[in-house]
Amino acid sequence: MDMQALLERQSFIELDARGRAKKLVDEGTFNELLGPFERVSSPWLKRQGIVTQADDGMVVAKGTIDGQPAVVLAIDGGFQGGSMGEVSAAKIAGSLDLAADDNRRGIPTRAVILFETGGVRLQEANLGLAGIAEIHAGIVDLRRYQPVIGITAGPIGCYGGMSIAAGLCSYLIGTREARLGLNGPAVIEQEAGIAEFDSRDRAMIWSFTGCEQRHRTGLLDVYTADDADAIRTAIIDCFRAGRPDACRSERVVGFLQRLSEVDPRVQATPEQAAAIFSRGFAS
């Protein structure tokens, strides 16, 4: 990319959740549901002395993408680290359910989920976990009709139960700045020791869980620059491609085969992981 093109590029990461959703839908079609003026916030955070946010850190936008009905679900990583509580999770799960109902009525509504989240909101514990489980079910239901596209752009990345949601998506898009993993670096270090995973070693963390490596290992479908237009184009391309022959969660046998090739007695390297997992995952 030449310098002029680089200067003209609009960063997707620098947009807030609402700005990201507006950028992805067709111009003039953005319509927010249960926005901040509805004052639907967490009933639990205030009781714990935590300042709430009027939309509970979750933006739900209806519009069209490539001329087709769509809902964009953008998690606000700036509020509680993008964590999922009862309200924010219900906004995603409910939207997915309504999109699936649209398809059953002949309206081909598709969904895009912007993952900027550390997973469950610890202050809401079981309520958040239950909500994430409903999100999982909603993705699996909707993807029978239309592709469900996930995006993790950074800088928080996507972890915890929401990384499982990302894995359930029909297609997953990521940038160099983002990371994707079930457990965060600090959690791995806490449970397995610093010799296993040093949470202060940023280069090592990105070499294993960064989206470039996730793309090399086949866990990410599209690896793109931090460019709002490029990300929108990637979404449209995925929707036009239609439902994949088999989603990742339908390739269990292939994943187990690849995992069986990993020797847990030897400290893994990014190169070894890429060599094993890039061979693909049969259904």
UniProtKB/TrEMBL annotation:
PROSITE patterns: COA_CT_NTER. SUPFAM superfamilies: ClpP/crotonase. One of its GO terms (biological process) is fatty acid biosynthetic process. InterPro entries: AcCoA_carboxyl_beta, ClpP/crotonase-like_dom_sf, COA_CT_N, Malonate_beta. Keywords: Transferase. One of its GO terms (molecular function) is carboxy-lyase activity. Residues 1-103 form the CoA carboxyltransferase N-terminal domain. This is Malonate decarboxylase subunit beta. It comes from Caballeronia fortuita.
